């Protein structure tokens, strides 16, 4: 075990000497990694280092990722996944896409987006898979993976991964020259992240992509706006990869503005940053852009030097095999080097060299076309062989199906006859059951109508009897009592007579209220409100010092049963009586509201009520009656008391 630790330490020291100073964060982490004697701590610091993978030189990233994989063998499942992701990122930096896709196919089966601890690993693997397909120009598969990833990210409200996927879809659309669609996705990414401080990295990517898109559309003012937003973020998060692309966009902006000196400065800055992460770059799209920049600014000698050095480097790589040589991809770039040299020689009147470069451009283009033709032919051959095998399988399946068709047709006929018989039988049975059910429902409805009519007749009869008999007698008693005169000196008789008068009047009032309910089957909320208005008008005469205010806000006029209407009226009447008797108020406000849900509030400005008595078993009958009436009607009733007086609030129970 000691030997193994010693070997790992030596490896760390060796690679740390290769990795030149990149950023302050990377340097700090490397120092911790190289001085730590604990493998677990080394792995933790390595995983933190890999979060800066864009800014790490690609050869060094690969080596450190391999060390992390070795350290993670005895660690958690999540740490193993993060180490594997670092290795995959390094592989993509070398465009080794086939290997990446094979590894991801295995790794994705190990992690579940539904598990919070594994979700981040799953999303990173899916993103890398999409990027691998994108590098292969397989845009359909790349986009399909992103759509699936977005669905999961939306389910788990992962804004960062949604924004990353939107940006990737924007890049894919840009590569396919679908510029409107690209703008749609990039704007959508910004819309969900621009207000979040923790999404600065995602914002930087969106701004850089938008800058590139607007440069391509020659909307250079818009491009400059997004460049100016992106550069401070790239510097703040110390991301060399993002800053390189921001400088490339800025160089392109100055080039389009014909400010060639500034364009050259930022192009060289971008290439310097790229050299830190990718190594010495002599033959690349960036160098090609630098050569074209020199050409446009008429610095032909500089342009010629750039183009010639790139071609010479590619020739040496091809001849001596310094690294894996991809003839097709290199030829695609090299033809533009020849074209650039040809333009420079033509501009400097070097006709012979111009002709030579033009011939090499044409020859390279022809070779590239031949390679494309070979690739296309190979693809057609594969397609032919595949189709041939498929046709053989189809023919075998056809022969087998012919043999089985007769058996299937016989079985099918028997089954069809059985189904027809079952359908006919079921249809007949269903019709008979429907007729029976309709007859039962009709009889039930008729019975209900007859019961309702009988109830209505009985209610009308009782109301008429009360009005014609008890009503007349009660009114007569009240009238006769008002005509009786008592000697003022006989105080006890005078009090008794007043009580008789009040009681007789109450009998008349309550009898009228009862008759009002009995005369109707259902009662609207507005009718109850009108009845309360009559009550307050009568009461006002006996309490001239108290002001009554009734406000209505009735948009939906609720229909109550007669029984419930009576209960509501009695509750409100009792609340008003309590306020008159006990609150010492000068004002009673009654508010009736009905907007989808009805609420009634009775408020006095008196001394309030001790709400603790509401739960007291010795509470008066008035409050108990109000509560029991509300329960009977399935309503809520509550009392509130503060410095403004007492509030009684009645509302329906929400089931």
CATH topology of the domain at 522-652: Heat Shock Protein 90
Q: What is the second-level CATH architecture of the domain at 522-652?
A: 2-Layer Sandwich
Amount of beta strand = 5-15%
CATH top-level class of the domain at 522-652: Alpha Beta
User: How widely separated are the two ends?
Assistant: 69 Å
Number of strand elements: 7
Outline, from the CA principal axes? elongated
Let me know the average pLDDT: 82
Q: Could you spell the SSE succession in H and E letters?
A: HHHHHHHHHHHHHHHHHHHEHEEHEEHEE
Q: What does the radius of gyration come to?
A: 45 Å
Provide the spatial order of strands within the biggest beta sheet.
2-4-5-7-6
Number of helices: 22
Residue share in helix: over 70%
Which structural class best describes the helix and strand composition?
A: alpha+beta
User: How is the quaternary structure best described?
Assistant: single chain
Question: Would you identify the regions where 5 or more consecutive residues have pLDDT less than 50?
Answer: 1-20
How would you describe this protein?
The protein is 75% helix and 7% strand. It has 655 residues and is α+β, with helices and mostly antiparallel strands. The chain has a domain at 522-652: Heat Shock Protein 90, CATH 3.30.565. The strands form 2 sheets. It has a 5-stranded mixed sheet, covered by helices on one side. The protein has a two-stranded antiparallel sheet with strand order 1-3.
Secondary-structure blueprint of this entry?
Elements: H1 2-18, H2 24-35, H3 39-50, H4 58-72, H5 77-93, H6 97-107, H7 116-135, H8 139-155, H9 159-175, H10 179-193, H11 200-216, H12 220-237, H13 240-256, H14 260-278, H15 285-296, H16 300-320, H17 327-347, H18 351-483, H19 491-518, E1 522-524, H20 525-542, E2 547-554, E3 559-561, H21 562-582, E4 587-595, E5 597-604, H22 621-632, E6 635-642, E7 645-652
Parallel strand pairs: 2-4
Antiparallel strand pairs: 1-3, 4-5, 5-7, 6-7
Helix pairs in contact: 1-4, 2-3, 3-4, 3-5, 4-5, 5-6, 5-7, 6-7, 7-8, 7-9, 8-9, 9-10, 9-11, 10-11, 11-12, 11-13, 12-13, 13-14, 14-15, 15-16, 15-17, 16-17, 17-18, 18-19, 19-21, 20-21, 21-22
């Amino acid at each position: 075990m000691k030997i193994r630790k010693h070997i790992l330490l030596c490896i760390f020291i060796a690679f740390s000497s290769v990795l030149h100073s990149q950023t302050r964060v990377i340097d700090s982490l490397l120092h911790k990694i190289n001085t730590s004697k604990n493998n677990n701590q080394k792995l933790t610091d390595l995983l933190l280092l890999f979060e800066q993978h864009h800014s790490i030189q690609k050869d060094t990233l690969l080596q450190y990722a391999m060390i992390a994989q070795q350290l993670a063998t005895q660690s958690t499942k999540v740490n193993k996944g993060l180490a594997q992701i670092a290795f995959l990122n390094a592989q993509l930096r070398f465009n080794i896409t086939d290997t990446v896709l094979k590894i991801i196919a295995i790794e994705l089966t190990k992690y579940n987006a539904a598990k919070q601890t594994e979700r981040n690993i799953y999303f990173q693997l899916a993103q890398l898979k999409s990027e691998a397909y994108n590098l292969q120009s397989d845009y359909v598969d790349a986009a399909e993976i992103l759509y699936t990833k977005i669905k999961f990210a939306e389910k788990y409200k992962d804004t960062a991964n949604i924004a990353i996927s939107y940006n990737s879809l924007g890049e894919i659309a840009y590569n396919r020259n679908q510029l409107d669609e690209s703008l749609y996705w990039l704007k959508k990414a910004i819309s969900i992240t621009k207000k979040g401080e923790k999404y600065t990295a995602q914002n930087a990517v969106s701004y850089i992509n938008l800058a590139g898109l607007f440069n391509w559309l020659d909307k250079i003012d818009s491009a400059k706006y997004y460049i100016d937003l992106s550069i401070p973020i790239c510097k703040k998060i110390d991301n060399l990869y993002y800053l390189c692309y921001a400088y490339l966009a800025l160089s392109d902006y100055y080039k389009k503005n014909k400010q060639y000196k500034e364009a050259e400065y930022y192009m060289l800055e971008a290439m310097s940053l790229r050299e830190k992460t990718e190594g010495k770059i002599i033959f690349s799209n960036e160098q090609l852009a630098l050569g074209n920049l020199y050409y446009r600014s008429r610095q032909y000698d500089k342009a010629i030097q750039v183009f010639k050095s790139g071609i010479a480097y590619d020739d040496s790589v091809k001849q001596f095999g310094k690294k894996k040589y991809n003839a097709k991809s290199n030829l695609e770039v090299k033809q533009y080097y020849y074209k650039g040299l040809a333009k420079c020689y033509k501009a400097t009147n070097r006709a012979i060299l111009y002709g030579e470069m033009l011939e090499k451009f044409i020859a390279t283009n022809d070779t590239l076309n031949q390679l494309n033709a070979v690739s296309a032919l190979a693809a057609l051959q594969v397609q032919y062989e595949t189709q041939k095998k498929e046709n053989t399988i189809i023919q075998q399946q056809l022969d087998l199906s012919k043999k089985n068709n007769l058996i299937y047709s016989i079985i099918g006929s028997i089954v069809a006859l059985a189904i027809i018989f079952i359908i006919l039988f079921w249809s007949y049975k269903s019709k008979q059951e429907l007729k029976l059910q309709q007859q039962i429902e009709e009889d039930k409805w008729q019975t209900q109508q007859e019961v309702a009519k009988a109830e209505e007749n009985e209610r009308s009869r009782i109301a008429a009897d009360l009005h014609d008999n008890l009503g007349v007698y009660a009114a007569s008693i009240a009238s006769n009592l008002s005509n009786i005169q008592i000697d003022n000196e006989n105080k006890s008789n005078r009090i008794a007579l007043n009580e008789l008068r009040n009681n007789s009047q109450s009998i008349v009032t309550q009898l009228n209220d009862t008759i009002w309910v009995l005369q109707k089957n259902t009662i609207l909320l507005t009718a109850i409100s009108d009845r309360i208005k009559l009550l307050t008008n009568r009461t006002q005469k006996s309490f001239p010092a108290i002001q009554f205010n009734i406000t209505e806000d009735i948009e939906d006029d609720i229909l109550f049963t007669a029984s419930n209407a009576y209960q509501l009226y009695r509750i409100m009447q009792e609340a008003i009586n309590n306020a008159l008797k006990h609150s010492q108020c000068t004002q009673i406000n009654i508010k009736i509201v009905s907007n989808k849900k009805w609420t009634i509030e009775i408020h006095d400005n008196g001394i309030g009520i001790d709400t603790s008595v509401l739960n007291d078993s010795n509470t008066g009958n008035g409050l108990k009656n109000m509560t029991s009436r509300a329960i009977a009607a399935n309503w809520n009733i509550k009392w509130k008391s503060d410095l403004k007086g007492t509030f009684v609030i009645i509302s329906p129970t929400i089931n």
